[in-house]
Amino acid sequence: MALQGGGAHGALAWGILDRLLEDERIAVEGISATSAGAMNATCFAYGMAIGGREAARRVLSEFWGRVADAAALSPLQPSWFDRVSSNWGLEWSPAFVGLDMITRLFSPYEFNPLDLNPLRDALLASVDFEVLRKPTAPIRLFISATNVRTGKVKVFQSAEICAEAVLASACLPFLFRAVEIDGECYWDGGYMGNPAIFPLIYGCDSCDVVILHINPVERPEPPRTAREILNRVNEISFNSSLMREMRAIHFVNELIDSGQLSRPSMKRILIHAIAADEVTIKLGVSSKLNADRAFLAWLCEHGRRVARDWLARNFDHLGECSTVDIRARYL
Known about the structure:
Blueprint: E1 2-3, H1 10-22, E2 30-34, H2 36-72, H3 80-85, H4 94-105, H5 108-111, H6 118-126, H7 129-133, E3 140-147, E4 153-157, H8 163-169, E5 179-181, E6 184-188, H9 198-203, E7 208-213, H10 226-257, E8 270-275, H11 277-280, H12 293-314, H13 326-330
């Protein structure tokens, strides 16, 4: 599986994972993930390591519950009016507008000198990283972050996974200080891999890659407001690395199909996509920062429905063929 980042919208992927875990026909070999996807992937893998499917569902639920608990103490917590008037976003919240202005004028080194990050506490309370680093851990993890100095993607693999690696993958540079690991500084992995597919191709045996989309690839209308424009720029840039990898996968698959590459030496990759674009394109831009408990629960439940419908349509094609038209969706 390949899990995208997208802030609070990661609760959609939580719901998708929760439903997939109920289906014992589904076996997951490895997960490549970024940002909120890295949080989900870590909880999923840890749960599977300590108690299988039910434990993975429990760990995911507990993690998102802790995120909601932390948000309840935040001045950004939306009011009922905010939820109704801005599609569960925070656009009309004075606190959010204030934070937005602060991040444009000051760096996190200035307005957050203590480097406070509520996700750190939620993550450490949910996951024992020593368990994930054991060779016996059943899920291979690949967590992407962006090296600030080199601009290259850094993929932390199972033996390297720690809380700081996951936080690095989710480090939005306008909100949090760069995460330093072994002398290198890292920002959100979405800039260079949202998510990275190549670790699954090289590091796993399965030919099926299921991408969990929480960022719309397309939008029906061009953005008009400054905030909408900035959000669309971020969506395009965060999807760009995935687009490039899809082009390479499509090219190699065509060479294999035409007989120009030997099938035994090259693995044909089958691509599948689970998306909830009908929801994400309607949400307010700042809803990615909205960790209200009811909002997260609503996203989770919608993710479960999306996964249920996807399984009904596509399960029989796993291992046989791609269930997404790579050229039409990504090229």
